[in-house]
Amino acid sequence: MSKNPVVPYILIFALGIGLIFFMSMYGIDQQKEIADANDESTEEGTKDDGEEGASSEFDAEAVAQQKCIGCHGGDLTGAVGPSLHGEDKDPEELHEIIKNGKGGMPAGLIEDENIDAMVDYILTLK
Ligand code: HEC
Predict the structure, then answer these.
(1) pLDDT tens, position by position, 7-16
(2) Is the pLDDT of residue 31 over 90?
């Protein structure tokens, strides 16, 4: 009896299905991780807002993670831009720098009405 010529195709087909299944499970895991990470940052942000009594939806920590870490480093302890921890500048001066930029620091990254909240956040960094 000769080998059925379709068998290799069925094998490849089964392998393909297996691979797709594996990859989708992997994707679901990653989605969970991303969702968990988001949850954490949202919770922290809400706590911060509560302490400072800020009323806006602006989450300074989350925005910093999006817009500032590229230059100021992952934990804002400095990279291209200086560390934002232990700032000894006046809030007005920090506001000014965030609003108008300075040297390599771009102006207008934060909407005017949210700059104070960002300054407050920076001043919580020890
Ligand atoms: C393109 C790179 C870049 C990005 C993005 C960036 N910064 Fe900066 N930042 C700098 C540099 C460079 C300096 C130093 C400027 C100087 O003193 O000449 C600086 C300085 C500062 C200072 C003054 C610190 C000090 O003690 O002098 C503050 C506050 C600051 N940045 C906040 C922010 C915030 C908040 C964000 C995100 C919204 C941000 N930066 C995003 C590059 C960047």
Answers:
(1) 889 999 999 9
(2) no
Out of 61, 85, 105, 123, mutate this one to test ligand 1's pocket (max ligand atoms within 8 Å of CB): namely 105
Residue with structure tokens 């691979």? Answer: 19
Contacts of 14 (CB under 8 A, 6+ apart): none
User: 68 CB under 6 A from ligand 1?
Assistant: yes
Ligand 1 contact, 106 CB (< 6 A): yes
CB 76 within 8 A of CB 64: yes
Question: Would you say residue 86 has pLDDT above 60?
Answer: yes
CB 34 within 8 A of CB 28: no
For residue 40, give Cα distances in angstroms to 33, 86, 122.
11, 24, 19
